[in-house]
Amino acid sequence: MWKFVVRRILIMIPQLVVLSILVFILAKVMPGDALSGLVETPGVDSSTIEDMRTTLGINDPVHVQYLNWIKGLSQGDLGTSYIHQRPVLELLEARLWNTVYLSAAILFLTYLIAIPLGITAGRFHDSLIDKLIVGYNYITYATPLFIFALLMLFVFGFQLQWFPTGGSADINLEPGTFSYYMDKIYHLLLPALSGALLATVGTIQYLRNEIIDTKMKDFIKTAKSKGVPEAKIYSHHILRNSFLPIAAFLGYEITGLITGSIFLESIFSYPGIGQLFLQSISQRDFSVVTALVMVTGVATLIGTLLSDIILSLVDPRIRVE
After folding, report:
1. Where, by residue number, does the polypeptide cross the bilayer (predicted)?
2. 74, 101, 128: which is the final residue of a domain?
C-alpha cells in the first residue's frame, strides 16, 4: 500500500512542474498587466510606469521571472498583489475558509439529497418513481450551473427574499458570537443548495446503477432463496457493496467543487477565492491569478490522490505493485 501511495506522490511532481509552466505561460500571453490601467491616469507618464515595471521585475526575461516565481513558491511566498498591495498569501487566508465552508456545505447537501434518491431509484427501478428521479437527473445534467444559480438568486433572493443576496455574514454582528456563525450559515444556504442540486447527478446515477447491478449478483439470489428478509438483504449486502465505490469517488467530488465555486461565489457575491480569481483576471492582477491556479491545481491533484487511495483500499486489484 505504501509503495502505491509513494508512487502516486512521485507522479504528482512532474505534473506540478508542467502545471506551473503552463500557468506561467498563460499568464504572460494574456494582454496587458497590472500597471496597464495607469496609462491613461492623469499625472502618470509612461516613463514612470516603465520604472515601476522594472522595479517589480515585469520587464525581466521570461525565464528569470519564472525562476523567481518558482523560488518564491518553494519558500511559501506566493507574490504580492499589485492591485491590493498586499501579499497574495494574506488575500488567500482572508477568503480561503469561506470557500472551504461553501464546498463542505455543498458536499454535505449533495449526499443528503443524492443518497436517498439513488437508493430509491435503484431499489424500485423501472417504476414511476424511478422514472421521475431519472428525469430529474436528466434535467439537472442539462442545466448550466450559472443559469440555475442566477434563477435561484432571482427567485429566492430577490423575489421571495428568503435568503440574503450577497456576502458571507452581516457586518454588524460581532465575529465569534453564536449569532455571527448562524448568520454565516444563513448566507451559505442559497449558494450551497444551488450547487448541491446540480452536483447530485453523478452520485444518484452511479448509486442507482450499482444497486441494480448488485441485485443481479449470484450471492443476492442465493440469499433470497434461503429466505433472508429483503430489508436485511438491502442493508447487509446490496447497500454495503454499492456504497464502497461512492466513497471512493469522494476525492473527485472535491475537485469538482473547486471549479463550481468560482461561478457560485461570483453570482452570489460570496467572498471566497473563486470570486477573487475572477476579479483578479478582470484587473490583470496576474500574481494573484497564477497563485490561485496553482493552489487549486494542487488541491485537484490531492483530491485525485485521495480517490486513488480509497479506490485501492476498496479494490486492491487496482494497485500496481
Report:
1. 9-27, 100-124, 136-158, 185-207, 243-268, 288-314
2. 74
